[in-house]
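As agreed, record minuted below.
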Amino acid sequence: MAYSNLPIRPDLLVRLESRHPLLVRWVVRLVYLAILGGSLLLVFLLYLSLSLPNLSELEKPKYDLPTQVYDRNGRLVTEFYTKRRVLIPYDEVPPVMTQALLSIEDSRFYSHYGIDLIRIAKAVVIDVIKMDFAQGASTLTQQTAKMFLLSSEKKIIRKVRELLLAVQIESRFTKNQILELYLNKAYFGHGAYGIEAAAQGYFSKSARELELEEAALLAGLPQAPSRWAPTASMKNAVRRRNLVLGAMAYQGYITEEQAKEAQEKPIVLKLGKSEDSNEASYYTEHIRRMVLDLYGMDMLYTGGMKIYTFMDLKMQIAAQQSLAKGLYDHDHRQGYRGALRNLWREVGDEANLDDRFFDEQTGRVASVWKSIEEDSRKQLKETFEAKIEDATLENHFLLGGHAVGVVREVGPNRALVDLGQQEGHIYLEDHRWARPVDYQTSLNWRTRLRDLRDILKEGDLVEVTLEDHQGENQGFALKLTQTPEANGAILAMDPRNNEVYAMSGGFDFAGSEYNRAIQAQRQPGSAFKPIVYSLALDGSFTRASMLDDTPLVFKDTQWRPGNFSKSFKGKISLKNALAHSKNVPTIRLTMSLGIDKIIAHARKLGITAELPEDLTLGLGTASVTLKELARTYAVFANGGKLIEPRFVRRIETPEGKVLLNQESYREQAVLNSETAFLTTLTLQDVVKRGSGFRAQALGRPVAGKTGTTNNYTDAWFMGFAPQLLAGVYVGFDDTQKSLGNLETGSRAAAPIWVDFMTASLKTLPVLPFSQPNGIQMVKIVPDSGLLDCDEHPKAEFEFFKGGTQPIHCHQDADTGLTDYYSTPEDQGDSEAPSDEAPPEEADLNADQDSSPSLAPPPVATPPGSPYGAAPTEGIEEL
């Protein structure tokens, strides 16, 4: 009997085997192989199922969430992230969004069990035909599994794991829960992860507010955002959106008419504002670095923390705008630096023409141009026109926006500018400031521009602002613009608790991330003097104490300190010496108080910078930061308490757990409250009748001090109202470069301060400075600082700490000296508001870099001073 391959032997199979033994043999073998393969596959699937990721991760999914920064009023300022994501519950997603998504991604989502066998069959056929993984068949459930639990690599084993996970997910989660997971996880392009971030990123609105055409656009992005996103290709985006709308109509979610109407609408984007252009960038960058040091990079960029700052966003915007305006104004006072380049010069150079073809003063030379052959001239013109087209290609014509243009014609009063698709005119009357740049001569009616041909030539490529549109024939009215070269900083805070409301460290964060408010160390000049005078007021000196303002020379070094006005008053009260920023009385006061005591006092008031141990200390030759000096001025404003400036109020986790709380703060009493009040009162005098006169424009009680250093390299204004303190510094990053002739703190820095304070104080009540109980008012004669016993015509009330008021009566004596100022012009130390007269403000009279190093002798003290006496060698009065 022949060998049989049949494991069982029913009659039918026996007869079949007898007739076709070979066929039966192979069929049986294939059955064995199928059983074996099926068994192995089951074992393999069991193995994979045991090694699948735990679905508990989906019950409380961990998203990479951005850290959000809020201002003091709860307004979102910016976010720090590697993946921008904003979570939204499913029940808050509009139906039109889920309908659009299901139509294009998974139309049978609600009928399958995680795997769509029909789609898989179609995909297999297409992949076999194309011999590639060309067609996907993943359901939304599979995609959710891949995004949360698997990698994106195209491997069969990853696909099998995805199928198994999809089945498990469907068994544990509802369809709506799966959709919520997908919508919050998917990448929609433009740096947006999740539907809410996508809606905010593309349309500056919540996903809750999406219109039909907007939802269709977003629904088509997850498959290939780099290809379909409107920021990548508007043409592709329109095509993809319309495909989604057609699918929605086919599925019955919308009518054909609704689909057609939506397809005809253009895509209107309103992209979310980027962090780079944010007016708060310097402040938020300071926060970013602080949080990075505290919690590390992972928590900062993916931890979803909420940072509540002390910033007031409105004040922050005002600070940045005021600083930019002030820097523009300073830049204009120095003149126009010239065109970016000249296209005719480039044409001549490229054609290897004679150097005579282009003159640096007048431009293309007409006589040389006429001597060139007609064909060559035509070719040169074509090259010139091509250069214009290339240079103006990126122009956008928005009023108030910037563009570049090429000067076509220029006359004494008007210049025609080619902007590419448009043209415009530059007018002399708008550009009196644009004289050729000159840092040595101040801008006034004598030096202003009188002829546009002095600064412009045919072919000049210039930066302009589109100010107005004058009609079809005239085009745009243009103004020349240039990025300011000087820079600066502004910092504002509540002096009562040192909560920092605003901080800007420069003109443009995108151009320079260097924060000049907290990193730049600059000489404050006369802005340092209140530290010296507060020490005097804390001792036996009063505001009425008479100081000596007569010429002084140091024999050993031949240093002759002088006043900015080049004049001397003889005797002058302490309050007027500070109000008018007199240098010589300050030097004598420094000698009287003692350098060591001034340094110790400055340290107590919060100055941590290295301080020179010589008499220039009182004139502000130390280098300090704006933040440091603002902290010190806050001591005067708040009654003598030193408080560290605070930027962050509170930091929380996404769950609301508080990581950092700085609601409370530590304050240290470092100055007698009566002394702080008298110092503040004296700084009010700086505003009322000194170099800080510009601050009078606020029309409320304010105190402040200007500061200017040698050669006008640094300009400062530090000032405060009872509830708001602000400091401004202006200067080049090159500390040796002058801001320009007469660019004092009063002219360069104070206007920025006034602009900011005007915008910020308008909603705050007008408050007086608080007067301590220990202050008394006594009527004195300013010329002597003694009591008014005979109703003197110049007598006035003065403030004193109890027990320090004068006890002797004033007696008239014709000394030829006076402490009385009638007008700003009489002062000689306050900036006059006219372009004709120089802005006079106290300044170091000698250039430190060119003067011999000062090694002062032991300082002398007036008889009766509580600090004792010292030898007077080396000091000569003239």
Q: What stands out?
A: The first helix runs from residue 11 to 19. The longest strand covers residues 460-469. Residues 820-878 have pLDDT under 50 and may be disordered. The CA atoms of residues 213 and 261 lie 9 Å apart.
